[in-house]
Amino acid sequence: xxxxxxxxxxxxxxxxxxxxxxxxxxxxxxxxxxxxxxxxxxxxxxxxxxxxxxxxxxxxxxxxxxxxxxxxxxxxxxxxxxxxxxxxxxxxxxxxxxxxxxxxxxxxxxxxxxxxxxxxxxxxxxxxxxxxxxxxxxxxxxxxxxxxxxxxxxxxxxxxxxxxxxxxxxxxxxxxxxxxxxxxxxxxxxxxxxxxxxxxxxxxxxxxxxxxxxxxxxxxxxxxxxxxxxxxxxxxxxxxxxxxxxxxxxxxxxxxxxxxxxxxxxxxxxxxxxxxxxxxxxxxxxxxxxxxxxxxxxxxxxxxxxxxx
Length: 309
Prior knowledge:
By secondary structure, this protein is α+β, with helices and mostly antiparallel strands. The protein has one domain: 2,3-Dihydroxybiphenyl 1,2-Dioxygenase, domain 1. The protein contains 5 helices and 18 strands. The protein has helices at about 15-25, 80-90, 165-175, 225-235, 290, and strands at about 5-15, 30-35, 35-40, 45-50, 70-75, 95, 100-105, 110-115, 155-165, 180-185, 190-195, 205, 215-220, 240-250, 255-260, 265-270, 285, 295. The strands form 2 sheets. Strands 17-10-11-12-9-13-16-15-14-18 form a 10-stranded mixed β-sheet. An 8-stranded mixed β-sheet has the order 2-3-4-1-5-8-7-6, with helices on one face. The chain is globular, with a radius of gyration of 20 Å. The N and C termini lie far apart (about 65 Å).
């Protein structure tokens, strides 16, 4: 099963227009907007879909009332959909759509959809670093930072879910869908990646009481740590409230900056995540602040020498 990762997240929200504005300000492109729904897309086509909470096009909400209604995963080809359908139909109903995509609920009750991925391949410049003792990545007179940098989310990175039974949820994704465990925060849950994605994680499962079930946050990858700082600063100065960061995680090594959102969860900018193959041996450490982040910054308004005199 060559599952690539999340293609889209589908939300049913009571505050439709507020969420539309939020996702545009976050940096996603508005690719659809009408009276019933909206789509906000990253550069590779991965996206967030918004519906009014009472839309008949949505799956039923979880008992917890989470605004997340569906997770859409992309696979490489039609054969992968056939493999998933054959496996999951052993113990539950699998809905097959006209376009060949399939839908079902996981063991925790989350609605899932699998489709041939709609991601497009990106060919964009990376963030270049000049490091003493190493060959410079930027040529003479090539600036590392200038005013024409256009910061935009490149791809939907990962989803973090609150689940009532972490062990059961992990077994479903690993044993039934071929996900692999990369690391474990003891007392919290595992980081997982699908087989056709070498990012440290596309899914992180957090054990919580049933009434909290839902989505804790989702993240889009940016080009690098500089873009995380630029995007986060832009977002904060637009009036949005930071939740955590900026900083850098231990597991995954990704830079992060989280914000509160009107989608009933947090949203993250991230960049520079570790890559893993099947030879990687998962680490397991007790949860703590030290285990969660290597370092953490606090935003301050721009300052210049003498400005406070």
